[in-house]
């Protein structure tokens, strides 16, 4: 397994340098799918990292997985985020799909260039405040019918399927949170809408409307998110933010090493002040990294205290550090950092955008405090859907 | 004068609501000049705010001027910044132009839609670290010849003239910092380059190359920046950042008042936590505003301690508060804030970009400390040009 | 009036240098009343600053008053705080006492060395969370009877009287917040308890137990705190914290100017880094000062929006800046700052202690957010006493 | 070894609860040596944790050692710091003492209640700025003679010996940094001075004057601090600060769980806001802890990049987090936290005091930036002594 991990790690770095990083600027500018990155990463097995060995995947442990996401994010945050959303959907399949479906749904991930989405957002919902899904599923004979509107649906239109958070409404009008695995396209599934966000622009995320969309019964999974699943989600978001900030630190450091001002004979890296600012960023990111990997190593899927809690702690710290770092690095480099060349302004936009993904800091600090006081906690509050 | 100020203030607010704010999103998206805003602001006299009464302007005091820049920035930071750069050039003409030129150069500002630029940046220079201008001026008979490359030249191509920071080189190869007032176009002046910055995208700022560009002798002003002039520059930058953050606060507040989540009967503004976050931003911006206007009211042009020092204090505080505020407001509003609709992500980009304009925080904190220790300080260190 | 203010200001500075500052260290060490400071300040009229002119006082406007508190706090925070608590009690008398009592109670303040206290805290109450007073007043014939326990009663034992926050309980067991003005000693009034706090040690504040303590009916004032009164209270607290931090800045600056390390020929103030740190503190405190005096100048007693709101804004900002400043100044000066000689560690303790006085930051940010959303706010929530 | 570690850890917790924590308040109040804690800790072997197994000690690895220091600091920061300074001196003996002396000097640590000091500070020196030792050693025949003044000499008067940083001056007046191991008392060694510091008051640290103090030649160790030694020093300081803040977090949490306000039926821990504040502190301290133990685990004594650099990163982050945490915890708990009962104000004082120990944040951020740029770094700059 160590051997597999090391090999994958080396391949990832190579693919990132050869393909992912060079594509990142145009992916961002054009707000398009990082297709070339997906292709190259798929070839070395990155899209099946979290698929179990028995299903043909790498069955990578969580800490190694997080390290891969971080590495990709250093080169291109959008590539890392899409791979993470896809892996999250694969995980949900592994955990929740009926036996006869599992192989069917994972096979394309192993054999072809296939990505799955994971869609939770709705215009009237906030995962951190009150996670209510207005997208409903009702039984009609042998199948189920889906109605509702999702937005921020990453990869909608190109994903071959997606896990969707819904509310199952039974005949007594009782509500229950469920996940459904829908095909990427089909009757009753409409993908639409503009995509001009601040950052993470390669995570092309249009809206999806389900209108009387019928799906087979075995695509409905009861329950919506396990402690381990939500923890993993948050840890991946953290790895994207951290990697993005680390990439920016590398770029800024290279710039300071190379840049010589007119009238000076030394690069600005010789200025003790520049060193101190870089040193400050290094320290903050190192602490964030330490707490992130501690959480990934500790992860016990069914134990909130060893999944949800460390993940919330990690995202809380990483988010704060990555936001500060990307802003400070721009200040260190100065005016030129606001132009696209160095990629610093891209990292600044990417981190601010990625950090808006749930749970938000208020939810996390609440959860950490509640845990400290001995309470059982979950990442999101689904009570509004029940 | 109070009457003039009040009238101008009311007109500015009206023009901002009718013209400047509605245009702001497209100005940003297309990275184009805010021509409709300039036109409407020009009609109510905003472009001649700082032109003396005897030259046909408003002769507005600095605090009132800063208040106008702040108001415009609430609607569109780029419009505010271009007006400020133009006003700064007008000020330099008033302070430094020979009598026979002053009327000639100010008349178009009073009578027509005319803007002037103020260009200081160079690829190899940092105003905050070592302000050396490699753009040289040498005498050749009755005229002077300019050679060099400037970048970030706001309004280059449309400005009818611009103040340019240069180094005068005499026959003994001695150097002296000077400002020159160049025409907007002419032989030896080439405007070129892309413009795809993070923010402040309406302050279209290409590069300008001067190649053996001849100018009349009376366009060369000895000395480069008075204490009052650099203070005013920094105060205007501060007003742009503050106004931009205040505009974002208004937008975020409106959003929180209107937004009702599915499953809730109240707007999110009813959440005590949302109030606390908004309250935090209010307090930070109020303190920044107080120190900014204190500096503008205290301003004594020839006294560094009453111009450079309060201005540095103000920019230091405002910059920090506006950067934090625009980031925090996005967090309060959540995912939707990363899309262009609300303008919050624009303010986030605008403030990070505007705050890169000199002096940087290190220069300012150094300067404030040196002043505390009883030393005479200046905003920039021109020693490298001497 | 300007003349009076200027004269008072000059006298205050002189008395502070001659008496208040020299006494500050021993007042702190021994946790004793700053009697010599009170005496000297009383002689120049400081104890009757807020007593109206018609009652023999200075009738000082709020901004000038705040400036005096700030000046005293630069020399000794405890002296400033006790003067402020006393002045607050005088204000409550002016606002609420019946005509025949007003002269009687204010005369000693004008003619002799008299201080009054203002006691609100109780062991089971939090002014910022739920301001409930368990100390009750009930009518018994012509007089009222007080029962309850107050703690943190500044100057109890030496104050000649004190305003005390209580709950009036009528025959129907209905509750109403009231203030009562009690004599400094008498039957049913017991002063007790240790006093070993972190800071503000000269504000000697034992506990007071009222046991069936009878008071005259005209000592009971209905209502407990006006918008103007609570605003003034918070502004005075802010002036104490700000002045204390400014005093520490002065001390640290002097130290850096004088201290020369072995092996160096220059004082550490010559180090650009030391300057930057001092400059950072200067900027933060200047912004806090600007927002504090803006609030004091704007103060309109009966308008929450012009009293409570600006005062909350000011305390929120000042507290944050003063806490940070006193900690940072110790870091700049290094190990020696932890010893009593320079007074830096005293300021550090004083500010952390003073900043615990209500309202707390959560209450203030909530209040500022609620005001932003257009609601009427008050400084404290007395609903629990009603 | 794991068994030894586990056993020691359990014993430490027990001794801390039974002896160290109960003594902490009086140790602080009286600014006295924590003799009862030393005795109890000595009995379970804590004073020989870092003494090699072959010399009769535990030979504990660095991470386990740091964990013990952290545990003691949760109960009493001064006890932890004195044990750490002693252990640092033991380490220096192990690394630098000649073979025939090593056993002689370590035996009392193993067999009796013996502590050693480690004295570096001088009135005119700053370890973080310019680490020059004015205390000189010169050869006189077979022995060496020491002259100079040290201050902040922890345990001077009770320590049976101490490592002292000096400058060796040879006949050509050349300087070289050395450490000498002096006996605790003897001719030419005078201990004097008051001890009334802000915090860490149990680390009683008077001044020591060496006047023509003769010592044997084998007490002089050439060189002054190895990368591993300075890293270990900084990691121990970090463990003291972190443990102290963690202890305060525990106390504050207990308080919030127990405290019920009048008029409420629930403890204040039920307030979501209190949870969020506690959760924030938890997250910050967890990140600091993660980076601290990462550094301790990674520690390779002779490799600056695996000792000095991670240690600087850890101290930089821990210091910042512990300072913020102890201040924030006081705010959460409110006014009562400023009185001695809960120990929160003690932690606040202890952390601010301990964090002044070198290297300071400027030195650390510089060092981290220099390392990032590929330079070889050391914890302190001894160039002034050479």
Largest sheet of chain A: 8 strands, mixed
Number of strands of chain A: 8
Give the integer mean of the pLDDT values of chain A.
94
Cα Rg of chain A: 21 Å
User: What structural category do the secondary elements of chain A indicate?
Assistant: alpha+beta
Order of helices and strands of chain A: HHHHHEEEEEEEEHHHHH
Oligomer: homotetramer
Helix share, percent of chain A: 40-55%
By CATH, the topology of the largest domain in chain A is Butyryl-CoA Dehydrogenase, subunit A, domain 3
Distance between the termini of chain A: 42 Å
Can you tell me the CATH architecture of the largest domain in chain A? Answer: Up-down Bundle
CATH superfamily of the largest domain in chain A: Butyryl-CoA Dehydrogenase, subunit A, domain 3
Low-confidence regions of chain A: none
Number of helices of chain A: 10
- Write down the domain tally of chain A: 3
CATH class of the largest domain in chain A: Mainly Alpha
| Estimated share of beta-strand residues of chain A | 5-15%
Which chain pair shows the most residues in contact?
A: A-B, 48 and 48 residues
């Amino acid at each position: 397994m160590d051997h597999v991990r090391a090999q994958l790690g080396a391949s990832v770095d190579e693919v990132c340098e050869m393909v992912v990083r060079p594509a990142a600027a145009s992916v961002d500018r054009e707000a398009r799918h990082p297709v070339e990155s997906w292709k190259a990463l798929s070839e070395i097995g990155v899209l099946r990292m979290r698929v179990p060995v028995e299903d043909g995947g790498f069955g990578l442990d969580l800490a190694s997985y997080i390290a891969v996401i971080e590495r990709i994010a250093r080169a291109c945050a959008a590539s890392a985020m899409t791979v993470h959303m896809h892996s999250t959907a694969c995980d949900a399949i592994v955990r929740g799909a009926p036996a006869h479906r599992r192989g069917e749904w994972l096979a394309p991930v192993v054999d072809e260039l296939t990505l799955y989405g994971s869609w939770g957002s709705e215009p009237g919902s906030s995962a951190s405040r009150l996670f209510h899904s207005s997208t409903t599923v009702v039984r009609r004979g042998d199948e189920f019918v889906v109605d509702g509107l999702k937005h921020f649906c990453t990869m909608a239109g190109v994903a071959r399927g997606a896990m969707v958070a819904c509310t199952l409404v039974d005949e007594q009008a009782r509500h229950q949170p469920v996940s459904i695995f829908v095909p990427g396209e089909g009757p009753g599934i409409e993908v639409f809408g503009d995509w001009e966000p601040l950052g993470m622009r390669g995570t092309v995320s249009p809206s999806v409307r389900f209108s009387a969309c019928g799906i087979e019964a075995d695509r409905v999974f009861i329950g919506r998110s396990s402690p381990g699943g939500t923890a993993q989600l948050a840890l991946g978001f953290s790895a994207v933010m951290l990697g993005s900030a680390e990439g920016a630190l590398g770029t800024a450091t290279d710039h300071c090493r190379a840049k010589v001002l007119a009238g000076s004979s030394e690069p600005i890296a010789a200025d003790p002040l520049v060193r101190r600012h870089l040193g400050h960023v290094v320290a903050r990111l190192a602490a964030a990294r330490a707490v992130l990997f501690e959480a990934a190593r500790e992860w016990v899927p069914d134990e909130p205290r060893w999944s949800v809690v460390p993940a919330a702690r990690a995202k809380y710290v990483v988010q704060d550090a990555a936001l500060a770092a990307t802003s400070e690095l721009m200040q260190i480099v100065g005016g030129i950092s606001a132009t696209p060349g160095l990629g610093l302004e891209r990292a600044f936009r990417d981190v601010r955008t990625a950090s808006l993904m749930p749970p938000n800091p208020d939810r996390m600090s609440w959860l950490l405090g509640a845990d400290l006081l001995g309470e059982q906690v979950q990442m999101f509050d689904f009570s509004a859907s029940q």
